[in-house]
Amino acid sequence: MTPAPRVATRPLRPLPEEAARLAWVDVAKGLCIILVVMMHSTLGTGEALGGEGVLHDVVEFARPFRIPDFFLLSGLFLGRVIDRDWRLFADRRVVHFAYFYALWVVIQSLFKAGAIVAGAEGPADKLAAFGLHLADALVVPYSTLWFVYLLAVFSVVTKLLHRRVPPVVLLVAAAVLQILPTNGLPELLDEFCERYVYFLGGTLFAEAIFRFADGVRARAGLALAGLALWAVLEAVFVFTPTGIEAVPTLARLPVVSLALGTVGALAIVAFASLMTRAGGPITAALRACGERSIVIYLGFFLPMALTRTVIVKFNEARPDLALDVGLASLIVTAAAVLAPLGFERLVRGTRLDFLFRRPAAFHIAPAPASPARLRPAAAPREA
Fold first, then answer.
1. Distance CA 32, CA 333 (A)
2. Which of 167, 157, 154 is nearest to 199 (CA)?
3. N or C: which end of the chain has fewer CB within 10 A?
4. pLDDT tens across 249-282, in order?
């Protein structure tokens, strides 16, 4: 019989003395969610204004590690519930994500209803077109919400396989899927193949990653030198063209992409660990963003679009004072990050609290008695 793989398991809540030690997780999540919002804001703003700015270079630099690190961080805490019964597991890792996905698919779709039902004639046809759109979103991850969708899929797949497939075999298979060209596959399968290895790595190597973060804090000088070397090498791979249309830079080459995603994710862990050791207002701000990363992720699309529209109209009305693409992208990013946080604080404890906190009616197992201090990357207040 094949021995069961060893998945790191930890208590549902860290002990008090662990809180400071693991604060780097929220800092890392905060940096990642800002980079994700920056990517959407910058690319959209550049397209709307017809140019590129300095943030386009930042977005490109972060491409290899931005999403891999988010999934690695999300996998870190799967071991807390992976061996629980399916009801509790599904409540924490499937129903939770499904609730926010379904809710915000409807919200985003309502704001985009005009485009969704374009071409349909009459109320009945428009309603049918909108219903088909929602049905399609059950199979094809919708818009920016694909990350939440995949977290549920990754969690279920990992629970199904972790005691049936040796961890080495599972990890190698996930790495092969990442390396293989999958662009022609349906979107869900393509994203699964591209990202699963990082989530699985976070799950299988959780304890090693925690030890790595501890070691970084203990050897700050060496860690800073390592981060500097990584940044230089990252820039070389990201900005060196290959002359191949399908793979425009060295960073996008098979195997290289996997290596850069893995090393880059660990670099963010090291950076967050050092920031936690240093403290200060920037660290506090990143940590606050990380603690509410799902709030930002779910809510950034509307303030991003509105701010971008205002800037475009301003530039058209006052070309003498027109904002360049770099500054405009920065303003849009800031609005897209801060507005959801402000809105969540405003509705907290009100009837609109369901937008960011899953109501008790949508639990299939008893909810935690109190929020866990540490949470998966896209799931605040859930263990």
1. 13
2. 154
3. N
4. 999 999 999 999 999 999 999 999 999 999 999 9
Name the one residue in this structure whose structure tokens are 């279920």: 156
- Which are the contacts of 2, defined by CB distance < 8 A and separation ≥ 6? 164, 165, 166
Six token digits for residue 202: 């976070």
Comparing C-alpha atoms, which of 181, 183, 194, 185 is closest to residue 153?
194
d(Cα 108, Cα 105) in Å, to the nearest integer? Answer: 5
d(CA 74, CA 122): 44
Average pLDDT of the residues in 366-381: 46
Contacts of 104 (CB under 8 A, 6+ apart): 145, 148, 298
Alpha helices in 205-300 (DSSP H): 206-218, 220-239, 256-278, 281-291, 293-299
Nearest-Å Rg of the Cα atoms of the chain is 21
Residues 6+ apart with CB under 8 A from 270: 212, 213, 216, 223, 226, 227
Angle formed at CA 68 by CA 65 and CA 71, multiple of 5 degrees: 145
What lies within 8 Å, CB to CB, of 275 at 6+ separation is 24, 27, 282, 283, 286
Residue type, 18: E
Structure tokens at 364: 């299939």
Residue 279: how many other CB atoms lie within 10 Å: 11
* Residue 138, token pair as written in the block: 């059950």
pLDDT of residue 369: 55
Residue 75: which of 5, 8, 174, 161 has the closest Cα? 8
| 68, two tokens | 């891999």
Query: Going along 242-347, which residue ranges are E strands?
Result: none
Give me the chain's average pLDDT, please. Answer: 89
Tell me how far apart the alpha carbons of residues 114 and 116 are, in angstroms, rounded to a whole number.
6
